[in-house]
Amino acid sequence: MGLKRFAFVALALLAGCATPPPPEPGNAASKVLATGPIEEVAIGPMRMARENGFLTVSAQVSNTDTRNRTLYYRYLWMGPEGFPVAEADTWKSLTLYAGQTSFVPAIAPVPQAVDFRLEINTP
């Protein structure tokens, strides 16, 4: 009986330590790269469109904290093979007030961009 109980507890601990599966390709979570801690900031829906041959993107960000937060972000532009097709954007900062929701828009610098990644960080 003791061996069965030990095996059950060991399996339960291993199941609790399992890493979550990676986000599905095309899912908004697969588009976000956290370069540091992301505290109290939620990433919402993302919109993509082509305008005059250039990829345009807008991502919703929300401050879920009761304090103001500064968010640093930049976009990376990818080609059809998944490799960068342009230099990464410069880091930009956005102040999100307590409970505020905002959008971070961008336009790809080259028409070859077909996908993007949003890098974010909160200090």
From TrEMBL:
The keyword Methyltransferase is annotated on this UniProt entry: no
Stretch forming the signal peptide: 1-20
Domain of life: Bacteria
Pfam families in the record: DUF1425
InterPro entries in the record: DUF1425, YcfL-like_sf
Keyword Zinc-finger: no
Keywords (A to Z) from UniProt: Signal
Name of the protein in its database record: DUF1425 domain-containing protein
Organism, scientific name: Pseudomonas arsenicoxydans
